[in-house]
Specification:
- The protein has 175 residues and is of the alpha/beta class.
- The protein has one domain: 3-Layer(aba) Sandwich (Rossmann fold), CATH 3.40.50.
- 41% of the residues lie in helices and 23% in strands.
- It has a six-stranded parallel β-sheet with strand order 3-2-1-4-5-6.
- Strand 4, helix 6 (123-137) and strand 5 (143-151) form a beta-alpha-beta unit.
- Helix 5 packs parallel to helix 6 and helix 6 (123-137) packs parallel to helix 7 (155-167).
- The two termini are 23 Å apart.
- The model has no long low-confidence stretch (mean pLDDT 97).
Length: 175
């Protein structure tokens, strides 16, 4: 059985760039340790927007350019990438990654997936979206979100997202 660690959108713009927060900066050491200690397969997701971001639905609703493909803000944080240089990076144009769900479903068909753990940003948007998406693709695989390695847009929305995931039978830990 293979265990997976999904590192969601730990990109410069979400940590200390255009949409960065003190909470995102604060979890960085915990995410470093999580990756360092993890013995399974690591995958990164990367929020990816085109240069014409302002013309997209998301850009009209959140008019803060971020994670524009090819920019420094779009890049996975270097210290995280250095810990798992062989890890695949899945670019995603939206909150949830269908490609991630399909990839893990195919992996599960070839060799059972033992567990999936998610960490990253933002708890209340992309972590939540990907956790629910993976629950749909892999309903019998244990899914865990490590709250100590996640941050939301606000501390309150972080807590609400964790509670929503618990109701959906996703385990929430705080390591």
């Amino acid at each position: 059985m293979q265990d997976y660690l999904i590192v969601v959108d730990m990109q410069n713009d979400f940590i200390d760039g255009s949409l960065g927060t003190a909470e995102a900066v604060a979890i960085l050491p915990a995410v470093v340790e999580k990756i360092r200690r993890f013995s399974g397969r690591v995958l990164f997701t990367r929020d990816t927007h085109p240069a014409c971001y302002g013309e997209t639905q998301e850009g009209r609703r959140l008019p803060v350019p971020h994670c524009i493909q090819g920019t420094c803000g779009w890049e996975i944080r270097p210290e995280l990438r250095a810990l798992a240089p062989e890890a695949e990076v899945l670019d995603k144009p939206s909150f949830g990654s269908v490609a991630l769900g399909e990839k893990l479903a195919a992996a599960n068909a070839a060799e059972p997936v033992g567990s999936v753990t998610l960490v990253g940003l933002c708890t209340d948007i992309c972590v939540l979206s990907n956790a629910l998406l993976l629950k749909a693709f892999l309903p019998e695989v244990p899914l865990t979100v490590d709250a100590a390695c996640c941050a939301g847009v606000t501390p309150e929305s972080h807590r609400r997202a964790l509670e929503a995931m618990k109701v959906c039978q996703i385990d929430v830990i705080n390591e």
